[in-house]
Amino acid sequence: MEDDEEINMNCKEHHLPELELATSQVREALKCILHTILFIRSPGSVVPYDVECDGFDLTYTRIASDNTTSKNIGHNPHNNNKGTTNTNPHHPQQRISMLSHQGISINSSRMHSNVENKVDDAIESFFRSLSQIGPELMSGCMVLSFFERRSSKQLFGLVSHEERVIWEQWYLRVVVNNTPRPITDDSAAVIERQRLQDTAEGMLQSVLLKVFELTAGGGIDHVPPVMYEFEIRNTKCNNNNTKRNSNNTDVDERETVYARVTNMPPLIHLGN
Question: How far lies 154's CA from each of 3, 9, 149, 157, 166, in Å?
């Protein structure tokens, strides 16, 4: 007989700045944020891999998966020693990672092996969990939780009791703006596209800076010196201004957003 219990005692909660993004920007922005946090909080040694965003003028560091290691790691200018951990102390994410895990030397393959799949699955689920808050506006909230498992025997060893002790959670609320963007080449449309792009990019930068601020200055006493895991959930956002529609309308809106994202054409390059 098994018993699984979730405990949130002494859990640190981090609430990141809200993002408002166009539908075409959401997937890449969420990958950037989630992979950055997972890289910083990864236990043990990792192989870093720098990713240049297609839709933003940003580069972030993530844990290299088997695919990125075998196909791309040799072409990454930030990784001069193929297959080894980059320990450049001037790289902000790597500096925070090293500070967070001083004295911890463990095999972290269990956590890293399915990071990419879990992130991708969570983002797909996010699009299906969106709630309508206004015309052409949908919102959703992601929660990234880190936890460790603690097992114990009860009733003369006949009952296996497992606790999932959550020690840190990251909350991110995203507003998805489906308002059509100008696509013509006249100067007014180009200026408006650039304004929207700069606004979204600035919001994403603010979120990343907040991540660095919280991990660099928030202390590491709550980080367990053992192997730990993570999960990503999608929850309803607390918003008093949320527009309440019928269940059928909510489902239709979510499916419409997901269909738009799935069939999204290539990003429009901004002109001068």
Answer: 10, 21, 16, 5, 22
Angle at 126 between CA 121 and CA 131, to 5 degrees: 160
Task: Please list the pLDDT of the chain residue by residue as tens digits (272 residues).
Answer: 444 567 766 899 999 999 999 999 999 999 999 999 999 998 877 889 999 999 999 999 999 876 655 444 444 444 444 343 443 333 334 433 433 343 333 344 444 558 999 999 999 999 999 999 999 999 999 999 999 988 776 666 666 777 888 999 999 999 999 999 888 989 999 999 999 999 999 999 999 999 999 998 777 788 887 788 999 999 876 654 333 343 444 445 545 544 544 544 444 444 44
Q: Which residue has the tokens 């489902």?
A: 251
Question: What is the value of pTM for the model shown?
Answer: 0.71
**Cα→Cα distances 42→31, 62, 223, Å:** 16, 10, 11
* Three-class HEC string of the chain: CEEEEEECCCCEEEECCCEEEEHHHHHHHHHHHHHHHHHHCCCCCCCEEEEECCCCCCEEEEECCHHHHHHCHHHCCCCCCCCCCCCCCCCHHHHHHHHHCCCCCCCCHHHHCCHHHHHHHHHHHHHHCCEEEECCEEEEEEEEEEEEEEEEEECCCCEEEEEEEEEEEEEEEEEEECCCCCCCCCHHHHHHHHHHHHHHHHHHHHHHHHHHHHHHHCCCCCCCCCCCEEEEEEECCCCCCCCCCCHHHHHHHHHHHHHHHHCCCCCCCCCC
* Closest C-alpha among 20, 82, 24 to residue 48: 82
